[in-house]
Amino acid sequence: MKKIVIQTLVDIDKLKGFKIQKLNNRNLICLEIPRDLIKFIKDQTNITNSSIYFLMNEENNGLYAGQTDNLFQRINDHNRTFNQDNNNRNFTKIIAFIDENNGLSRTYIDYLEWHYISELKKSNSWIRMNSQPRDKKPTISEFEEPLLLDLISSIDILLFCNGISFEVKQIKNKEIFSCNKAKAIFEDGQLIILADSILPNIDERKDKINPDNNYYKEQIKNFESMISQFEEWESQGVVEKNNDDDYKVLIDLKLWSPSKACNYAKGHYATSGWTEWKNEKGQTLDEVYRK
């Protein structure tokens, strides 16, 4: 077993929850900053250094990767612009990496941001909160690449210690339920729509609603809410439109109720997920888990 020593400083007074970590013999420092402490850390040493950082939403498993020339200024910008009332554009804490000597150059932080956004796109462990995919790899010299790979290795260790990894989780020994062209598992009281599921385009169904229907206004409101959610998922890299103009699920999508998941799987509102999701034996979710 390979062992690594990590030094940790925690504040047990005014900055309770603020944490500083460092690997032995490295200038790299990891800061864990709860969102409600941002305004209190302005006097921290090196807080205005350049940084590669992550905004973490612990409530819905959201993650944002970014870089900046001034960490304190940038996280204050995020604190103002990320909506705390919208769970898909929210964060609860920051995990940031700085060099004690401010040695993270623009080239380095550009490359690190590209690398970690790419890791987020491949992983099914997180909802990607970045709206820009950053597909183009920054140009670095052959002499810089070994240094950056070594730096990434150190960052990955400290990320792991803070509960962040970019693994692709495999679904094992879980009963699969189907609804329309979507597949899902039921876990911890939530329905998880699995990657590669297909969800129908709701725009077309909205246009077919009869205006003379007594529930027309309510149905339109519900469909507009669902369309807005699809747009949000698409910007996060959770879903993408396929050739048939439906949506392909790119990462496992956790929803709070079977019925809500069923609405997206069938493309209309007010369906009962407990009876619509069925396993290969034809048993409903209700029969398997509630009876």
Structure report:
The chain has 291 residues and is of the alpha+beta class. The chain has eight helices and 14 strands. The chain has a seven-stranded mixed β-sheet. It has a four-stranded antiparallel β-sheet with strand order 8-9-10-14. A three-stranded antiparallel β-sheet has the order 11-13-12.
Structural class: alpha+beta
**What oligomeric state do the depicted chains represent?**
single chain
Number of helices: 8
Record the strand order, biggest sheet: 1-2-3-6-4-5-7
What is the CA–CA distance across the termini?
46 Å
Instruction: Specify the helix fraction band.
Output: 25-40%
Please describe the biggest sheet, giving its number of strands, its sense, and whether it closes into a barrel.
7 strands, mixed
β-sheet strand percentage: 15-25%
Beta strand count? 14
Mean pLDDT: 85
Radius of gyration, whole Å? 22 Å
Cα shape: elongated
SSE arrangement, N to C: EEEEEHEHEHEEEEHHEEEHHH
| Uncertain residue segments | none
